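User: Predict the structure for this protein chain, please.
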Amino acid sequence: MTPLLLALGASLAWGLADFVGPLLSRTLGALRVLLWAQVGGLAAIAIAVGIRGEGPRGWSVLFAVAAAIGGTLGLYAYYRGMQLGAMSVVAPIAGVSAVVPVIFGIATGDSPSVTQIVGMGAALLGVALASIEHHEGAPRVAAGVGLALLAAVGFGIYFPWMHAAGKVDFWWASLVFRSTALLVIVGAVAAKRPQLRLGPRDLTIVLLVGIGDTLGNVLFAASSGKGLVSLTSVLASLYPIVTVMLAAAVLHERIARMQRAGVLLTLTGVILISV
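Assistant: Here is the predicted structure, written as structure tokens:
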């Protein structure tokens, strides 16, 4: 039960961070928010690892490098998707990343239940419905959907690699992940050269977003010690529920009836996959 609770804790931490961070990025810019969030997250995990005072327990913590590359690219696509489209649509579509670790689990010996298979079908159908909006009577792909699908792929890559790294040493796996993520973002910043300066209030909030995101990384990596990748990864993928609830409560987002049905079907599918 403990690995599953840790995975759910990761989902809660990510859901909150993935609401506040993209919301700020709408006015501050995705790269600026991501850069300072990585700084805050890296500082937090570096302090924790320093207090722990132990070296890594195996070289497999370096699997977190691959997790960081996929996860960071997915996170950037997620933030950009949130800038362009409704959070209530983008977040559930990105949550379909849950399908990737299930497929990985099947390939490595896990046997999904009928419920999980139905859940994958429901999630994919939900994505299709949530992706279409009607503009002046003509159907079109909703804003941010392409980026949301790209985010799902990136997050899907993250889960099995971080699971493998976390089984060895979740503290060091989290440190390797955050260090690599910061390097990826620094590379993007060097190429794009966006404005980086933030006011004290915004900087504090963004740093806390990074700490929350890192907490999610640590909790997920910790869940990997005893849990199956096909279970812990899917439970951690429930973060869109938190984001959608916050978007509804705080932003009062309104989306078309068919899209609402798609969002509900997508979330239902993700939940069924976790059963």
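The longest strand covers residues 132-135.
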